[in-house]
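A.,

Following up on our hallway conversation. Structure tokens first:
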């Protein structure tokens, strides 16, 4: 695969050159990183129905994956430990396999209506301890595993990205129908869509049925 030809004269290759381009970090920004959960971080986590988890693959390629559930789905086990239950997905197990190869993780907690986010960095392990998993059951269905995150760094991220993107502004919401469905996109990227429109409709209906019946 060809790579876009970047001009090496303008590439930044070390941190010193990078920092020379920007104003010095403010004292409060430098100090806002903490090592354990305080009351504010706990409340933000309790309110969050969504997070992104960043991991690194064995080949050192980066990966990020979404996790979503009812607010409070991430459990606080103690002041430095979180539990993220695994829910049914596509069974690629990218995040879990990455953690087994490299336990370093980064979490970004997002709360609808909040422009600020909470960032958590640490190391992760995977558990199938039934005592820990029991509290994450939904509709009687217990997750097969959970990700345990040992916190090393926590800080709240400012609102600029969300203010610029206007993420929560309904007037900026786009019409999902303007693009193909998920299954149509995947088929376009792999084996191709079926010629029969009725078959394509059945595939879309099957995906929606999975959403309705297999979230847990």
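Then the amino acids I'd put at each of the 216 positions:
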């Amino acid at each position: 695969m060809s790579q876009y030809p970047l001009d090496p004269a303008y590439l930044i290759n070390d941190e010193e050159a990078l920092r020379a381009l920007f104003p010095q970090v403010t004292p409060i920004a430098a100090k806002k990183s903490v090592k354990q959960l305080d009351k504010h971080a706990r409340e933000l986590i309790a309110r969050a129905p969504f997070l992104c988890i960043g991991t690194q693959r064995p080949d050192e390629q980066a990966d990020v994956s979404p996790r979503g559930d009812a607010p409070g789905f991430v459990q606080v086990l103690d002041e430095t430990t979180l539990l993220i239950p695994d829910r049914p997905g596509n069974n690629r197990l990218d995040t879990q396999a990455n953690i087994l190869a490299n336990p370093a993780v980064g979490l970004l907690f997002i709360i609808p209506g909040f422009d600020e986010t909470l960032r958590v960095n640490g190391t992760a392990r995977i558990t199938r301890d039934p005592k820990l998993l029991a509290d994450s059951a939904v509709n009687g269905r217990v997750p097969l595993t959970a990700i345990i995150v040992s916190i090393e760094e926590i800080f709240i991220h400012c609102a600029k990205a969300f203010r610029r993107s206007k993420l929560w502004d309904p007037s900026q919401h786009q019409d999902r129908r303007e693009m193909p469905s998920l299954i149509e996109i995947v088929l376009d990227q792999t084996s191709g869509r079926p010629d029969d429109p009725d078959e394509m409709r059945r595939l879309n209906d099957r995906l929606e049925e999975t959403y309705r019946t297999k979230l847990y």
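The chain has two domains: 31-165, 174-213. Curious whether your intuition agrees with the design.

B.
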